[in-house]
Structure prediction request, 86 residues.
Amino acid sequence: MSHPIIRECDHYLIMEPTKEERFLSKDQTLKWLENWINKLDKLPQDLASQPSIQSAAKRLLDISCDLEIKPGFTIQWFAVRLENPD
Prediction:
């Protein structure tokens, strides 16, 4: 289970094999996850019950930080704070 403070973060570090690391906004990260979920032949069991791809992406963002696309190819995302909270 992710720490509640993570939900306050609006940016994520995105990591894909063979690509440079990059920072995305929360909305961009959700779209990025939706794109990867659409490429899966079969959804993981914990996502299969979600009513939509958007719901599955949001669930992933809330409960995980990686997704195996195929054996040996895993994408990762990590919440980051880019500015100090005031």
Q: What stands out?
A: The chain has three helices and four strands.
